[in-house]
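Exam revision sheet. Question 4 asks you to relate a sequence to its structure. Input first:
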Amino acid sequence: MRVTSIEEVDKKKKKINVDGEFGFMLYNSEVRKYHIVEGEEINPEDYEEIKAALYKRAKLKTMDLLKRSDKTEQELRTKLRTAKFSDDAIDVAIEYVRSYGYIDDARYASNFIRLKKQQKSKRALEFELQNKGIPRDIIHQCMEEEFAYEDETEAIKKLIRKKCNNVTDVDDVKVQKIIASICRKGFSFEKIRSAIRELEEEENL
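Answer key, structure tokens:
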């Protein structure tokens, strides 16, 4: 393995390119320790030691990220790439935290839906979870489970009740403002109108 180039990242770190591709990031002290010199080969034993150190560093970084908040696999991979870890170090770190149950996309999706389903539509929830890298089949399964006992109409009703005690006592201008507000959360106009009609019927009983 030949060092193609060495690029300074900041005062403490350098980016090492190996055989024409990104290899790894090292502290300046490590560059000196392993005698990393542009245009020269890396000692195989040193390379294995470097890999072990970087894998450990990636694991610690991943654990630190998860301590701050729960994250999906895609979110972790993105943050680790931003931190300039190599793909193989990222793979090792992800498998490490997965083996301990620290990441679970199904669990993440279920918790996300449970916390957000009173404020957002199924469509909005699905869109956000897809952007977080959750596979569609996992999203649909979690949706089915989390909405088993409560549908969107009930969620919309709760949002309406937070804005007014009785919809029959509210004028049309206020009703339109309520509809617009809930539409912005991702719920369809038809379902909002349906929920309003149901509330009106309940209030007139």
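Marking note for examiners. The chain has four domains: 1-42, 44-103, 105-146, 152-203.
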